[in-house]
Design goal:
Layout (H helix, E strand, L loop, with lengths): L11 E4 L9 H28 L6 H28 L5 E3 H34 L4 H4 L2 H27 L8 E2 L6 H5 L7 H35 L3 H28 L9 H23 L1 H20 L1
Helix pairs in contact: 1-2, 1-9, 1-10, 2-3, 2-5, 2-9, 3-5, 3-7, 3-8, 5-7, 7-8, 8-9
């Protein structure tokens, strides 16, 4: 069905925000600010610990540090705008800023999805080839996995935004969301968007589902192997797999509801968007550090070194 023709190109979008109830906005601003600060704090601690502790210079922890950096990056794309709009009456974003926000959000989110695949490969080798693990998953292989994850995220986002920029935006400019995202922006194009919506579902929804299924199958195979032959090393790997499955579910299940669902919005779409774009980046470091004894010891060593260095001064 063709939409009405407009002659004025869209220069900005009006965001309706997370909530339109003024009495809730200050409370939500404080709550999301605390979440954002904890996101930075937890993930920076992980990155600093991995860099500074030579015991953690293995593929598993290098991939974990990369995931922590992606958590900070993804959260920083949408959360600052969410916080500022909760304190302002008029919530607007320019057309160019909207495009950039979508590009970087899907760039970091796409890289994160492929990074999780790399982490599953790492755990698979640790379980099935424990004696050759350090040889197979050496630093060179790990760096290639990280580079491929970032390149895949870049390709995913570039294709997404390239398809979106082919659409004309010359009329409606109200987005029922707290940040620019493809499903809502596509619906504002002043032309028939059926083909664009199908392309979006394939590039986002189908890709998310395929990666999620691959990860589920990978971890199922790993868990079956662990149950048949339990050793101390494999018990530790089991604990690590458990945390990664938790992270995987927090990241992919909400995303499936947003991007693989029919293009019409559902009642809780903003809550689901907050879960994977704001809450999950904060939970990732908690999940990994609370269940990983080696990481907790390394963090304690780092804190002790910082305390002793201050006392010496």
């Amino acid at each position: 069905m063709e939409k009405k023709n407009f002659t004025t190109p869209v220069t900005e979008f009006v965001l309706l925000g997370f909530t339109q109830r003024p009495e809730l906005q200050p409370f939500l601003c404080v709550a999301f600010f605390i979440v954002y600060v904890n996101t930075w704090l937890g993930n920076v601690i992980i990155i600093t610990t991995v860099i500074s502790d030579y015991h953690l210079h293995t593929s598993m922890y290098i991939l974990l540090a990369n995931l922590a950096f992606l958590d900070i990056s993804e959260s920083s794309v949408s959360t600052p705008k969410l916080l500022s709009d909760l304190l302002s009456q008029r919530k607007t974003i320019s057309f160019n800023e909207c495009i950039l926000q979508m590009f970087f959000f899907h760039f970091f989110a796409g890289a994160m999805g492929f990074c999780l695949v790399g982490m599953a490969v790492d755990r698979y080798v640790a379980i099935y080839k424990p004696l050759r693990y350090l040889t197979i998953m050496n630093r060179g292989v790990c760096m290639r996995i990280v580079a491929l994850a970032w390149l895949a995220g870049l390709a995913h986002s570039a294709v997404q935004i390239g398809l979106l920029l082919q659409l004309p935006f010359c009329g409606p400019n109200i987005l029922d969301n707290f940040f620019c995202d493809v499903p809502q922006v596509i619906k504002l194009a002043c032309t028939d968007t059926h083909l664009a919506e199908m392309q979006m579902k394939f590039n986002n929804g189908v890709q998310i589902i395929i990666i999620f299924i691959i990860l589920l199958i990978s971890y199922t195979i790993i868990l079956i192997k662990i149950r048949t032959n339990v050793t101390e090393g494999k018990r530790k790997a089991l604990s690590t797999c458990g945390t990664q499955i938790t992270v995987m579910c927090l990241q992919f299940i909400p995303s499936i509801f947003i991007y693989a669902w029919p293009i019409k919005q559902f009642a809780l779409h903003k809550v689901v968007s907050v879960i994977y774009s704001v809450i999950t980046p904060m939970l990732n470091p908690m999940v990994y550090t609370l269940r990983n004894a080696k990481m907790k010891k390394a963090i304690r060593r780092l804190l002790n070194r910082m305390l002793f260095s201050r006392r010496e001064r």
